[in-house]
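Tutorial handout. Part one gives the primary structure; part two gives the three-dimensional structure as tokens.
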Amino acid sequence: MEGETTRQNKVGKQLQRDLAEIIQLKGMSAYGGAMVTVTTVNVSPDLSLARVHLSIFPSNKGKEVLKLVETSAKYLRGELGKRVSKQLRIVPELVFFIDDSLDYVERIDELLKK
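Part two.
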């Protein structure tokens, strides 16, 4: 993301890897059988807030799965804390968003085939 410092980028990438692992370990059954992928994590300049973008497959379950992820945000943040406590003084607050860029690409492909 433009304007982000190297530290923000590094922290974002680390949080992305760790969250992806935590979500993967929790399993698809925890998210209604949907596959959840952490696509990007953008961190605020003071590292107190992380915007987590999720790709959800199948996409028609997006809103439902996003709610499930949001309800488990406290658990996810706790697990994240265990992993990053050595690198970060505070574990950022997590805010989740649906990354629908794959749907967008798919839609463009469909339009181009016509």
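Part three, for discussion. The mean pLDDT is 91. The CA atoms of residues 31 and 65 lie 6 Å apart.
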